[in-house]
What we know:
Blueprint lengths: L3 E10 L2 H6 L6 E7 L5 E9 L2 E11 L5 E5 L6 E9 L4 E10 L2 E10 L6 H13 L7 E3 L12
Pfam family, one: Lipocalin
Protein name: Prostaglandin-H2 D-isomerase
Catalytic activity: prostaglandin H2 = prostaglandin D2
Amino acid sequence: QLTGRWYSIGLASNSNWFKEKKHLMKMCTTVISATADGNLEVTSTYPKGDQCEKRNSLYTKTEQPGRFSYTSPRWGSKHDIRVVETNYEEYALVATEISKSTGSSTMVLLYSRTKELSPERLERFTQFSREQGLTDEEILILPRTDKCMADAA
Protein backbone atom coordinates (compact mmCIF):
# COMPACT_ATOMS: atom_id res chain seq x y z
CA GLN A 1 0.00 0.00 0.00
CA LEU A 2 2.95 2.28 0.38
CA THR A 3 3.67 1.65 -3.27
CA GLY A 4 3.65 4.35 -5.89
CA ARG A 5 5.12 7.78 -6.04
CA TRP A 6 5.79 9.98 -3.00
CA TYR A 7 7.38 13.37 -2.50
CA SER A 8 9.77 13.86 0.39
CA ILE A 9 8.40 16.89 2.15
CA GLY A 10 10.13 16.81 5.50
CA LEU A 11 13.43 15.45 6.72
CA ALA A 12 14.79 15.46 10.24
CA SER A 13 18.08 13.97 11.33
CA ASN A 14 20.78 14.28 13.95
CA SER A 15 23.52 12.90 11.73
CA ASN A 16 26.58 14.92 10.80
CA TRP A 17 26.07 14.74 7.04
CA PHE A 18 22.65 16.27 7.52
CA LYS A 19 24.10 19.23 9.38
CA GLU A 20 26.60 19.74 6.57
CA LYS A 21 24.21 19.25 3.65
CA LYS A 22 21.02 20.68 5.10
CA HIS A 23 21.23 24.01 3.30
CA LEU A 24 21.52 22.22 -0.05
CA MET A 25 18.59 19.88 0.34
CA LYS A 26 15.48 20.03 -1.78
CA MET A 27 12.31 18.06 -2.09
CA CYS A 28 12.74 14.81 -3.98
CA THR A 29 10.59 12.07 -5.39
CA THR A 30 10.57 8.51 -4.15
CA VAL A 31 8.92 5.64 -5.93
CA ILE A 32 8.17 2.56 -3.86
CA SER A 33 7.34 -0.80 -5.36
CA ALA A 34 6.76 -4.14 -3.69
CA THR A 35 8.78 -7.19 -4.65
CA ALA A 36 7.17 -10.63 -4.94
CA ASP A 37 8.37 -11.59 -1.48
CA GLY A 38 6.97 -8.54 0.28
CA ASN A 39 10.08 -6.40 0.42
CA LEU A 40 10.09 -2.81 -0.76
CA GLU A 41 12.14 -1.44 -3.60
CA VAL A 42 12.72 2.24 -3.00
CA THR A 43 14.00 4.55 -5.74
CA SER A 44 14.69 8.17 -4.88
CA THR A 45 15.43 10.81 -7.48
CA TYR A 46 16.87 14.05 -6.24
CA PRO A 47 18.57 17.16 -7.59
CA LYS A 48 22.31 17.20 -7.19
CA GLY A 49 23.91 20.23 -8.77
CA ASP A 50 22.29 20.47 -12.18
CA GLN A 51 21.72 16.76 -12.51
CA CYS A 52 19.23 14.28 -11.19
CA GLU A 53 20.62 11.47 -9.15
CA LYS A 54 18.80 8.22 -8.60
CA ARG A 55 19.33 6.00 -5.62
CA ASN A 56 17.92 2.50 -5.24
CA SER A 57 17.48 0.71 -1.94
CA LEU A 58 15.89 -2.57 -1.04
CA TYR A 59 14.04 -2.51 2.26
CA THR A 60 13.73 -6.02 3.64
CA LYS A 61 10.61 -6.76 5.61
CA THR A 62 10.94 -8.00 9.18
CA GLU A 63 8.70 -10.09 11.41
CA GLN A 64 6.89 -6.95 12.47
CA PRO A 65 4.45 -5.34 10.07
CA GLY A 66 5.49 -1.85 9.02
CA ARG A 67 9.13 -2.50 9.93
CA PHE A 68 11.91 -2.95 7.44
CA SER A 69 15.66 -3.20 7.51
CA TYR A 70 18.27 -2.01 5.09
CA THR A 71 22.04 -2.11 5.03
CA SER A 72 23.82 0.54 3.01
CA PRO A 73 26.40 -1.08 0.74
CA ARG A 74 28.15 2.25 0.51
CA TRP A 75 28.48 3.12 4.18
CA GLY A 76 27.93 -0.24 5.82
CA SER A 77 25.33 1.35 8.03
CA LYS A 78 22.33 -0.62 9.20
CA HIS A 79 18.92 1.00 8.97
CA ASP A 80 15.94 0.01 11.07
CA ILE A 81 12.98 1.55 9.30
CA ARG A 82 9.47 1.82 10.64
CA VAL A 83 6.37 3.28 9.13
CA VAL A 84 5.02 5.28 12.04
CA GLU A 85 1.76 6.33 10.48
CA THR A 86 0.22 6.66 7.05
CA ASN A 87 -3.16 6.81 5.41
CA TYR A 88 -1.62 5.67 2.09
CA GLU A 89 -3.49 8.26 0.01
CA GLU A 90 -2.03 11.38 1.47
CA TYR A 91 1.01 11.05 3.68
CA ALA A 92 3.41 8.69 5.42
CA LEU A 93 5.62 9.31 8.42
CA VAL A 94 8.69 7.09 8.53
CA ALA A 95 11.30 6.85 11.29
CA THR A 96 14.71 5.27 10.77
CA GLU A 97 17.35 4.33 13.30
CA ILE A 98 20.74 4.20 11.63
CA SER A 99 23.62 2.43 13.29
CA LYS A 100 27.19 2.23 12.11
CA SER A 101 30.56 1.71 13.72
CA THR A 102 30.92 5.40 14.53
CA GLY A 103 27.63 5.60 16.39
CA SER A 104 23.96 5.84 15.64
CA SER A 105 21.58 8.49 14.42
CA THR A 106 17.87 9.02 13.98
CA MET A 107 16.10 10.13 10.84
CA VAL A 108 12.46 11.00 10.30
CA LEU A 109 10.97 11.40 6.84
CA LEU A 110 7.63 12.86 5.86
CA TYR A 111 6.33 11.62 2.52
CA SER A 112 3.41 13.11 0.68
CA ARG A 113 1.49 12.06 -2.44
CA THR A 114 1.42 15.68 -3.59
CA LYS A 115 3.91 18.51 -3.38
CA GLU A 116 1.91 20.17 -0.63
CA LEU A 117 0.68 18.88 2.69
CA SER A 118 -1.67 20.36 5.24
CA PRO A 119 -0.14 22.38 8.10
CA GLU A 120 -1.49 19.75 10.50
CA ARG A 121 0.59 17.03 8.86
CA LEU A 122 3.68 19.25 8.88
CA GLU A 123 3.07 20.02 12.52
CA ARG A 124 2.70 16.33 13.32
CA PHE A 125 6.02 15.65 11.60
CA THR A 126 7.75 18.38 13.63
CA GLN A 127 6.15 17.17 16.83
CA PHE A 128 7.04 13.53 16.21
CA SER A 129 10.63 14.47 15.33
CA ARG A 130 10.92 16.33 18.62
CA GLU A 131 9.60 13.29 20.45
CA GLN A 132 12.46 11.34 18.88
CA GLY A 133 14.86 13.76 20.55
CA LEU A 134 15.57 15.90 17.51
CA THR A 135 16.02 19.66 17.89
CA ASP A 136 14.46 22.35 15.73
CA GLU A 137 17.78 22.86 13.90
CA GLU A 138 17.64 19.22 12.92
CA ILE A 139 14.12 19.39 11.50
CA LEU A 140 13.67 20.59 7.94
CA ILE A 141 10.67 21.12 5.70
CA LEU A 142 12.30 20.63 2.30
CA PRO A 143 12.11 23.52 -0.18
CA ARG A 144 9.95 22.79 -3.18
CA THR A 145 11.61 22.35 -6.50
CA ASP A 146 10.49 21.39 -9.97
CA LYS A 147 13.82 19.84 -10.75
CA CYS A 148 13.90 16.08 -11.19
CA MET A 149 10.17 15.81 -10.68
CA ALA A 150 9.02 15.03 -14.19
CA ASP A 151 11.03 11.92 -14.96
CA ALA A 152 10.39 10.25 -11.64
CA ALA A 153 7.14 8.57 -12.60
